[in-house]
Specification:
Layout (H helix, E strand, L loop, with lengths): L1 H20 L5 H51 L10
Length: 87
């Protein structure tokens, strides 16, 4: 589906480019399109930052859990018993 949308967008932009070469595209229309795309880009960047921050938080927690698990394995290999907290 993304490929279809990309091809349609490219087709439209190619037609607008040809029209611009013939001075047939109103500047206000292009400025409005630029403003819409810029706003959408900013929205996506903000959403991606939130998602990236959440993934980083999860990754940090998983790395901490892994380190704790390694401690347990090392402790178990040394002959010590693994303590549980009732779970």
């Amino acid at each position: 589906m993304i490929d279809f949308v990309r091809k349609m967008t490219d087709w439209i932009l190619d037609r607008e480019e040809k029209m611009a070469q013939k001075c047939a595209v109103p500047l206000e229309e292009i400025d409005a399109q630029i403003a819409r795309v810029t706003a959408k880009k900013k929205e996506f960047e903000e959403r991606c930052k939130v998602d990236r921050d959440e993934l980083e938080r999860i990754l940090t927690k998983l790395k901490w859990i892994r380190a704790e698990t390694l401690k347990c394995q090392e402790s178990n290999e040394d002959g010590n018993s693994i303590a549980t907290d009732g779970e």
